[in-house]
Amino acid sequence: MPNLSWRHHALVQALLSRGPMSETKFHSLFHALTKKDPGSHKQLFNECLLAINKELAYVQFELRACRNQYDGEVCYGVVNNVADEQAKLGTKYSVPQITFYKSVVEAIVNDVTGQGCISNISALNVQLECQLAIGSQSQGGPSTIPPAIRNFTMSQKEKTLEELVKDGWLCSTSDGNIGLGVRSFLDLRSWLRMNDVPTCDICNEAGVKAELCHKEGCMVRIHSYCLKKKFPRQAERVCTGCGSSWGIRASNRDLVEEEENEELNESTQAQSQAQAQAQSQAASSLRRSPRKRLRSCKLEQIETNNPGSSGASNVNPERRTTRRSVRQR
Ligand SMILES: [Zn+2]
Ligand SMILES: [Zn+2]
Predict the structure, then answer these.
(1) Do residues 123 and 181 make contact, with C-beta atoms less than 8 angstroms apart?
(2) Which of 63, 96, 225, 234 is most buried (most C-beta within 10 Å)?
(3) Ligand with smallest separation from the Cα of 228
């Protein structure tokens, strides 16, 4: 890495040895190394991260920022861009452990209620066989389950779960459930996208832990922190897809709508226009291509989600390039 100074090295080294770091910690490390505050020297901070990523790209690594969806905090980490769990977890975890991890992650992200977590017991009881069937569809069914996976005991699962939480691949949520860890948020970006995990309608990142629109038939989900950012006042919160009040359940909303309809009775034309507009908006939000949404998401994230902290924005330009190139393959 001839273009990097010892300061760049120190940043990368810290992330590699300590694992993902909160934005606050990463910023203070940057400050300690450069005597410059990343908040007031955004350009310097950006350039530093871009320089690092330029070099890391040669070995398919990337320094990136992500949000922990359970608390909305930004974290930094270095990830391996090779989409292969074996390469990422293989040095520490065995094949059955990795299979177990993948099954738990799938169960978490497939939660239709957007809670982004499953109970401890559900985690311990995930079916590893499904994972194998996905991985080797062409090579036969459950009869070919390797003994190592077939004999993976409950106590081994418990121990693995503990280790995965300790290492930040999974987390133990405040209500005692199992959710995705920061490392998974950093690492699984493209995987989440490939697996069609519903995205947040505001930032377009996967909405693993998100609030759902209560309107029947509306599939919009939004991260709590994105919602707060976009609509600081609770009363103003509306679904960005269908326009209905956010957080009001159907029964309540019917009342609200009735009141509104009364007001609009005089101009039925205006009302039907509004409805048509809302419907077309909802439809277009469904139609929007993932790539298009991705781009707008990045801008949104820089400008609205992260105004004071240059954090995520610094990594974004590089990240966009990387993703695009990956997709074109
Ligand atoms: Zn969001
Ligand atoms: Zn909606």
Answers:
(1) no
(2) 63
(3) 1
* Predicted model pTM: 0.70
pLDDT digits (tens, 9 = 90+) for 199-231: 999 999 999 999 999 998 999 999 999 999 999
Taking the centre of ligand 1 as the mean of its atom positions, its distance from the CA of residue 196, in whole angstroms, is: 15
Do residues 76 and 18 make contact, with C-beta atoms less than 8 angstroms apart? no
Fold of 6-81+303-328: Aspartate Aminotransferase, domain 1 (3.90.1150)
Asked whether the predicted pLDDT for residue 272 surpasses 80, the reply is no
Please say whether the beta carbons of 209 and 98 come within 8 A. Answer: no
Distances (CA, A) of 268 to 16, 74, 215, 258: 62, 46, 22, 14
Helix 154-166 vs helix 95-109: crossing angle, to nearest 10: 70
The strand pair at 221-222 and 178-180 is best described as unpaired
From residue 215, give the alpha-carbon distance in Å to each of 212, 244, 274: 9, 7, 16
Residues with CB under 5 A from ligand 2 (ion): 213, 215, 218, 220, 239, 241-242
- Average of per-residue pLDDT values in the chain: 77
Specify the residue for token string 């948020």: 185
Give dist(CA 147, CA 152) in Å, integer. 8
Give me ligand 2 centre to Cα 114, in Å: 14
For residue 298, give the ligand nearest its CA.
1
Residue 208 Cα to ligand 1 middle (Å): 10
Centre of ligand 1 to C-alpha 137, Å, is 34
Domain 86-187 fold: Arc Repressor Mutant, subunit A (1.10.10)
Check if the beta carbon of residue 201 is closer than 8 Å to that of residue 285. yes
